[in-house]
Amino acid sequence: MKPMKRSKLSALALVGAFLSLFAALAPAAEAGSLKASVFLVQAAVPRAGTEKALLGFARKNNARILREATDADVKNRKWNASLIVAFNQPVADSEFTVLFYDIHDGPRRFVNDMATFVDDKKQKTFVQKVTMSRPAFKPNRNMELVVTVHRAEVGKHKFGLVGEEIKRSGTVDFSGE
Fold it and tell me: What is the DSSP code string of 115-174?
């Protein structure tokens, strides 16, 4: 092969390698520009209306403190809410993940996660029912909810869980019964 053809061939190979690297990094670049506003509401979410009206409702009813439902025994209680996530552009993936962390004692401690699947690739706002059950979630703790797409954090929301602690008598019975 002539030296001129080799240099053109190696230049072409270099361009091909650069393009494949760019294609591999494209989802990470998309996730970098993707941002989300995250709201938790315990009020009933209106079913009719525009996206703008839904976001106005979410801002007005955004809960910083979630109160537990008292319709069950203390050990079986849970916190119910609606999660409203508004992205600044459509999600370029078939799902996004919601991670729950306990931040009461300082650093994040993973508690649970929830995947939300995207049906419409053009949709930017999502409403999802969320149930946080005991024993994974504990009362009177500070929590953080993080929305991730392609493993990149795009939005977060800090909130508190308020509820009744399990009462213990403090006595132990070692009888044979």
Answer: EEE-S-TT--EEEEEEEEETTTS-SSEEEEEEEEETTEEEEEEEEEEE-PPPP--S----
Task: State the Cα–Cα distance between residues 85 and 110, nearest whole angstrom.
Answer: 20
Mean pLDDT of 62-88: 94
Do both 13 and 94 map to the same domain? no
Place of tokens 């506003």: 37
| Same domain assignment for residues 106 and 123 | yes
Structural domain containing residue 142: 34-162
Q: Are strands 152-162 and 65-67 parallel, antiparallel or unpaired?
A: parallel
Q: Is the pLDDT of residue 54 over 80?
A: yes
Say how far apart CA 76 and CA 4 lie, in whole Å: 76
Question: Helix and strand tally (H, E) in the chain?
Answer: 2, 8
Structure confidence at residue 49 (pLDDT): 86
Average of pLDDT values for 102-127?
A: 94
- Claim to verify: residue 129 and residue 80 sit in the same structural domain: yes
**Has residue 79 been placed in a domain?**
yes
CATH number for the domain including 47? 2.60.40.1930
Global confidence as pTM: 0.75
Confidence of residue 18 (pLDDT cuts 50, 70, 90): very low
Does residue 76 lie within any of the structural domains? yes
Q: Which residue has the tokens 């240099």?
A: 7
